[in-house]
Amino acid sequence: MKKIAILLPSHWSAIQGGAEYQAKLICRHLVDSGRYEVHWLSRRIHPEYRAQGYTTHRIAAHAGLRAKAFFFDHQALSRQLRDIRPDVIYQRVGSAYTGIAARHALKHNCRLIWHVALDTDVTPFLVKGWRPSTLLKFIDKRYLEYGVRHASHIVVQTHDQNRLLGQYYGRRASMLLRNLHPLPAETLDKSGSLTVLWIANLKPAKQPEIFIRLAQACLDMQQVRFVMIGEAFPGADQQRAFEHAVAAVPNLTYLGKLPIEEVNARLARAHLFVNTSLVEGFANTFIQAWMRQVPVLSLNVDPDGLLEQERIGLCAGGSEPELLNAVRTWLADDALREQTGKRAQCYAEQNHSERNIQALIDIVEMQ
Length: 367
Hints:
Layout: E1 2-7, H1 18-33, E2 36-42, E3 55-58, H2 74-84, E4 88-92, H3 96-107, E5 111-115, H4 132-150, E6 153-156, H5 159-169, E7 175-176, E8 194-199, H6 208-217, E9 224-229, H7 236-247, E10 252-254, H8 260-269, E11 272-275, H9 284-291, E12 296-298, H10 306-309, E13 313-315, H11 320-332, H12 334-351, H13 357-364
Parallel strand pairs: 1-2, 1-4, 2-3, 4-5, 5-6, 6-7, 8-9, 8-11, 9-10, 11-12, 12-13
Helix pairs in contact: 2-3, 3-4, 9-12
């Protein structure tokens, strides 16, 4: 039985981000096939989590500055990989783990499949002032770049990522694999009050303050609700300031972190989804929204130009006023929302279903 090691900084039980969710779906498929011995290695795994059908391995635990970088795990992770002796390593989320896995694969007759998560995974390190934490990130990036150059196979999510991979590292992806999702189990019901959703774990790169301003600017649109969902900021002071800002806007609600089933249920009743992130790879929330007939209005992110090309949403090109204008226009035009939502659902079902996993399995099975 072929051994597969799934390697990410965090397990789905600890961090419910997009990369972790995609890895969870892939892990489940591998386990359910009954053809593989699956091991999941992460630094962060919820202490009460008990895996079914596969084995979890906690890599290390660090405090202080050491917790901010993954190259500190070099020896521990290398030792665990030697003990497991995987035939294939599937690694996602660019970090020092990418380089550590690549070195192990080269030395131990193993193949590394590296799956690009963010566009920044395949662009050079950008220094914004040197601090101790900056140096740690720089070292992590050097590890990552070693992995980029030596991975057996590279999987990208977009054509843009493949272009960046060639431009900066002289490599081409083995395959392009769009993120995948189960088909909706919920009944779609758009009969309620008009609802605009924002879904992301709270962090500066997601720019939640822009959505707060957006809701404030739409106070005159009665019967429209703006709702934010996501895990809290790690800093208590930052979270308090955020919640204070939300409380000052009467048409805005923050629901905190919700299980993915509840997020999908709310999308099934929602009318618009807004993304304000500075950068993404291929946001899972886009696919979740499209599958539930929710157009996506994005401030900056439009993977491969799909929002415009497939007519399943709109990208404001970084303009906050343009995003506001789009939200107001789409809320006022029922036909535009409904037609776009149906196109989005059709696109997502054709391009982002779990059938996509088979292409990845084909790489796993290569000799």
